């Protein structure tokens, strides 16, 4: 199981937990597993099959936007960090 | 209300002036749950990097009502550099801090220091004070603060103090260590 770090805005889905465990060998599978246990979380991360433009997901130190997107590989020992992108105009 | 030390306001203003006409952005971190901005963390605006591909954006021309497709760069858009943001986030987590203030500047002659549609869409920190500094006037700046929650913008007062120690706060307030 990978460890997933949950940002403040999504902790309503995890009962306040800052980190949770999730199963999967890609980011997409991790998100599906998260959503199975914490309903509604996938809609906050993915829009039209793509990572939401103001959400960052990192596998260990890599921003998946630059490293395979939702297909980026995740290992059992990986830490997946979800962060709001912090952006604006 | 946002209560903030004067030296931190000075840092925001100096950062925004330095980056103008690009937008400056950053965080002031404070102890989790304290609502007290303490540690100034200017961030790199990745949209101002020469290799930034541009943010695809659609807006309505206020005069003609026509849809305009455009790419936004650092003078009309900001986004934290994702690597720097991960490092800063980890450091804040280790220190049990959170982003108390998230600030950015508006630099364009037509823009007010009020949250834009993109600012509202991307505001994802329910506990943060969203501070906008307007730098279109070369001398006088405009500094305003907002809460942004589920797409609803609420402006709030800014109380600039010399030190949190002497500011009037609740009975359970912990004085500043300095
Ligand atoms: Zn803005």
Automatic annotation (TrEMBL), chain A:
It holds the Pfam family ThiS. SUPFAM superfamilies: MoaD/ThiS. InterPro entries: Beta-grasp_dom_sf, Mopterin_synth/thiamin_S_b, Sulfur_Carrier/Prot_Modifier, ThiS/MoaD-like. Gene3D superfamilies: 3.10.20.30. Signal peptide: none annotated. This is Molybdopterin synthase subunit MoaD.
Automatic annotation (TrEMBL), chain B:
GO terms for molecular function: metalloexopeptidase activity; zinc ion binding. SUPFAM superfamilies: JAB1/MPN domain (SSF102712). InterPro entries: JAB_dom_prok, JAMM/MPN+_dom, MPN, VirAsm_ModProt. Pfam families: Prok-JAB. Residues 2-152 form the MPN domain. GO terms for cellular component: proteasome complex. Signal peptide: none annotated. The keyword Nucleotide-binding does not apply. One of its GO terms (biological process) is proteolysis. The keyword Oxidoreductase does not apply. Keywords: Hydrolase, Metal-binding, Metalloprotease, Protease, Proteasome, Zinc. This is Proteasome lid subunit RPN8/RPN11, contains Jab1/MPN metalloenzyme (JAMM) motif. It comes from Pseudonocardia thermophila.
